[in-house]
Specification:
- There is one protein chain.
- It is built from twelve helices and 22 strands.
- The protein is an alpha+beta fold and 423 residues long.
- It folds into four domains: 96 residues, Rossmann fold (3-Layer(aba) Sandwich), CATH 3.40.50; 69 residues, Dna Ligase, domain 1; 128 residues, D-amino Acid Aminotransferase, Chain A, domain 1 (2-Layer Sandwich); 73 residues, Glycinamide Ribonucleotide Synthetase, Chain A, domain 4 (Alpha-Beta Complex).
- Strands 10, 11, 14, 15, 16, 17, 18, 21 and 22 form a nine-stranded antiparallel β-sheet that branches. Strands 3-2-1-4-5 form a five-stranded parallel β-sheet. It has a four-stranded antiparallel β-sheet with strand order 6-9-7-8, with helices on both faces.
- A hairpin with an 8-residue loop joins strand 7 and strand 8.
- Helix 7 packs antiparallel against helix 8.
- The longest helix has 21 residues.
- The protein binds adenosine monophosphate and glycine (GLY).
- Glycine binds next to loops.
Length: 423
Amino acid sequence: MNILVLGSGGRECTIAWKLAQSAQCGNLFVAPGNAGTIKYAKNIDLNPNDFVAVKNAVIENNVQMVVVGPEDPLVNGIHDFFLDDEHLKLVPVIGPQKYAAQLEGSKEFAKEFMYRHDIPTAQYQSFTVDSLKEGQEFLETLQPPYVLKADGLAAGKGVLILDDLNEAKSELEEMLGHKKFGAASSKVVIEEFLDGIEMSSFVLTDSENYVILPNAKDYKRIGEGDVGLNTGGMGAVSPVPFADEEFLSKVENRVIKPTIEGLKKDNIPYVGFIFIGLIRVNNEPYVIEYNVRMGDPETEVVIPRIQSDLVELFRATTEKRLDEFDLNIDGRSATTVMLVSGGYPEAYEKGKEIKGLEEIDNSIVFHAGTKLSEDKVITSGGRVLAVTSYGADFRSALKQSYDNIDKIHFDKMNYRKDIGFDL
Ligand code: AMP
Ligand code: GLY
């Protein structure tokens, strides 16, 4: 089977690495890919949001399945585009259609879905510029900290958590009145602050059945001890040590099952991953957010723990056979540490030569922001490499990643030395 993976990050590099191990994988393509995906696939230089370019690549290369890595092509309707096209409608797509993708694309849509199906989540109200005053009055009724969320996609930057009431009021005005996050903040969800520890569950569904993939915890802040600006993610651990059997059964019964059942009740077809961001409060799971794709860097620890054949898993998904699928999971822990460009998540330089990659042993280096320049691997993004290792527990896996990181170098390389510090 010829497969096309859309995207260019560590997530897509990991998916390509795993697909390439399958005897059922024919020609594998990643678009646009990076300097790491070339090891497992042929890169095609196109923008995944340019659906006509994707169509041409599918037809030219006789692609028989498309796996969508990032959220924006899904929110923009790539799966619907395939279903509506005479030449593409029989090519299965891993990733939901546009309507379902609102679970990630609109915080209000997600909150309404959770309320409708009794899925535990923080209480909320949403406001527009016309109800700015009511929004500010609503803030007065809440206890700090105040949680303000831009309704739409804002590249992970649309959530503000503020301690001061006046600041919260003026930020609300910035978001609604002055479009702080562009169209994404033309509506704002204000929600109750939940105090707890976060983790994520990953589910793959074929619309009828689902399988639960390994869970993971990521580290979003740039600074050690979880301080400083939010990033896409600086490292991840799987499984999450505090997520014991009792807690995970609550997650399945109170969150995962009602989510899948809710989609069915609402007549929303869904073929693809559901990434459920959870927070544990008094040993109860609450949903912080849904994403309609895998996480990055969570994929770099979740996929390596899947022992089953990923092409078979995806085929079972697109053929609605997930109920028959026997998912095998590696019992070891996996951890990943992200190496990032100095300055990230603010301004940073690109084009730095990366050295030492050939000296790595006993870790897997997944590329994120890299590209080839002549025969050199150079940096081309904020998050550059994810160094993944296995271990009997997360601490030994992390030690392995850190030992290998000592061998890698690029100018102004930065990484967090405390992944897993809170576990
Ligand atoms: P989101 O984009 O919705 O995942 O929010 C980004 C981050 O903000 C989450 O990973 C949490 O750390 C934090 N957050 C979001 N909503 C809440 C909430 N209701 N209570 C506490 N923290 C939250
Ligand atoms: N690591 C968080 C995300 O992928 O959204």
